[in-house]
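4.2 Preliminary Data

To establish feasibility before requesting continued support, the project team ran the inverse folding procedure on a target of 239 residues. The structure was first converted into the token representation described in Section 3, and no sequence information of any kind was made available to the design step. The complete token record follows.
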């Protein structure tokens, strides 16, 4: 029940309905104990009420090794939904579903992009099953590898980056990259971490959030890209 209430991808109306159904499986006394009214700190809920049906459709396509089609939307500055590329229909071979940052993502081969990409499930519109056979997975495709390399779900160029961090940040590095992340003690106050990431503005923002306690030690081209990004932010702030 806590998970259903907290899950961002389940719309509020459906959360209430699911909680009611879960309560009906227990006795009156158990249901009363289960209904604890978990407090979620202003957690936004998805507006797309068909998301659970879309998840089922994708699961069926994965199991049947079939393609699906859908349109994809974003939001305009006026907070209105707007289809990407003028309502283009995407032809997609789903390989897996990934729950990342409390959102569902479908990973698979997009004929429109010509490569393996990801889509937010709650931003898919008009999803449909097809009888067209799915494009086979690349031999080197691993969900775990893809999830770790695409930092915060932004598809930018992937690099192996060395981070130099204060010792207090070890828990944050493990939270983001797992306990198997390669680290070494640098000195009494610092350690280094070798991470594979998608070098994106979100990755740079994550580093900035530690207030100077983390820096990019290598490679040089990523350092330069990071410096340019910071300078660009400062220039805009002073305009």
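Position-by-position output of the design step:
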């Amino acid at each position: 029940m806590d998970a259903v209430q907290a899950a961002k991808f389940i719309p509020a109306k459906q959360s209430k309905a699911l909680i009611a159904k879960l309560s009906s499986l227990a006795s009156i006394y158990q249901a009363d104990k289960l209904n604890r009214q978990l407090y979620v700190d202003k957690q936004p809920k998805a507006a797309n009420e068909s998301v659970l049906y879309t998840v089922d459709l994708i699961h069926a396509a994965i199991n049947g090794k079939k393609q699906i089609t859908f349109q994809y939307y974003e939001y305009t500055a006026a907070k209105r939904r707007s289809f990407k590329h003028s309502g283009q229909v995407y032809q997609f071979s789903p390989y897996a579903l990934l729950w990342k940052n409390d959102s569902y993502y479908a990973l698979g081969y997009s004929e429109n992009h010509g490569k393996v990409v990801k889509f937010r499930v709650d931003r898919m519109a008009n999803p449909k099953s097809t009888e067209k056979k799915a494009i086979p997975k690349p031999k080197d495709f691993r969900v775990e590898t893809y999830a770790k390399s695409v930092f915060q779900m932004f598809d930018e160029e992937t690099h192996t980056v060395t981070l130099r961090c204060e010792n207090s940040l070890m828990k944050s590095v493990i939270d983001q990259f797992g306990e198997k992340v390669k680290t070494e003690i640098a000195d009494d106050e610092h350690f280094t971490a070798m991470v594979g990431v998608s070098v994106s503005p979100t990755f740079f923002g994550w580093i900035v959030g530690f207030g100077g306690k983390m820096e990019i030690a290598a490679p040089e081209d990523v350092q330069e890209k990071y410096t340019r990004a910071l300078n660009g932010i400062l220039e805009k702030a002073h305009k």
